[in-house]
Amino acid sequence: MINKSIGCNVRDCRYHAQNENYCTLNSIQVVNHSTPATTKESTDCGSFEKR
Ligand code: SF4
To answer: Which of 5, 35, 37, 46 could make an SS bond with 31 (beta carbons 3.0 to 4.6 A apart)?
Structure first.
């Protein structure tokens, strides 16, 4: 089910709603990609899984 509280455009993720740019999980974990995080790119969706 689409979770309109979590917007996402990563269509390669198995949890992406596909027809709309939202996640279907109830919650996600956002994690550091690099530490310390200094840019947007330093963060990631830790709940991503390949389709
Ligand atoms: S788990 Fe993360 S990457 Fe996957 S659809 Fe949800 S928010 Fe996007």
So the answer is: 46
